Amino acid sequence: MSTEAERMSISLQASIRRYLEKYPDAADSPEGIRQWWLTEELRMTPTEKLDQALMVMVISGEMQLNILPDGTELYARSVST
Asked: Among 23, 35, 46, 57, which residue carries the largest CB count within 10 Å?
C-alpha cells in the first residue's frame, strides 16, 4: 500500500471509529457508512478504498462483517471491542 493509500485508510478508519464511539450499536452497509459515518471530506472516497479500510478493521477484530440473505454486507463494531 502506498503512503497516500495508507493515509487514506487511516483517515477512513479514524472517521469510522469516531462514529462508533458516538453510536456503538450502529450497523450499516458500505454505502450507509459512506453517507452517515464518514466526515464530509471523506464521502467522495472511492468504494474500493472504503472497502479496503473496512476489511482492515474486520481483520484486526475491530469490526465484524455480516452478510444478509440478500447479499448486503453489514458492518458493525465487533462485540469484543
From this structure: 57
